Structure to design on (175 residues):
């Protein structure tokens, strides 16, 4: 298993992994079509200098991907997908660990990791909690100062805040 940086040529591979990740869900929860299923959606975003894209490959080929954005003292995980037939093998944990290590190596002042998750994605919620992430509740910023930084960055860098009702914010304090 390897994790390597993506190039703009990987847009079709990324779209395929996203689509394959949804194959493990009940059909009633899977949209027939979403922008994230298409290479064009990823191709433009792959050129954004603030984002970091990674592919996880195993002996069978591409099996997972992650994308995160570097912000001052913060890092936000936008995407983490593992193909349905590869889930349960620890690949999601490897991608999450890689995100945390890469973000810390790029920014010695890194203080907070954040991510969004669908509010009905119970398996994902358990996964992130198991890895030390906390679900945000209104008022957390009163006791965790770095959440103020995140709220400010989210508005300046267009990171979907406030959240839609179908999403949760998770965070992990590093210092």
């Amino acid at each position: 298993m390897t994790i390597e940086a993506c190039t703009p040529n990987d847009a079709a591979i990324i779209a395929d992994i996203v689509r394959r990740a949804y194959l493990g869900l009940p059909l009633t929860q899977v949209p027939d079509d979403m922008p994230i299923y298409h290479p064009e959606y990823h191709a433009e975003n792959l050129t954004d200098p603030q984002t970091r894209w990674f592919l996880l490959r195993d002996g069978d080929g591409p099996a997972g991907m992650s994308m995160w954005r570097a912000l001052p003292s913060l890092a936000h995980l936008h995407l983490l997908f593992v193909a349905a037939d590869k889930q349960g093998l620890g690949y999601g944990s490897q991608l999450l660990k890689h995100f945390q290590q890469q973000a810390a190596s790029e920014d010695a002042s890194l203080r907070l990791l954040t991510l969004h998750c669908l509010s009905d994605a119970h398996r994902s919620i358990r996964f992130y909690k198991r890895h030390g992430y906390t679900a945000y509740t209104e008022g957390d910023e009163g006791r965790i100062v770095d959440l103020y930084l995140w709220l400010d960055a989210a508005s300046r860098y267009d990171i979907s805040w406030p959240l839609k009702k179908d999403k949760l914010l998770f965070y992990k304090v590093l210092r």
In short: Residues 91-106 form the longest helix (16 residues).
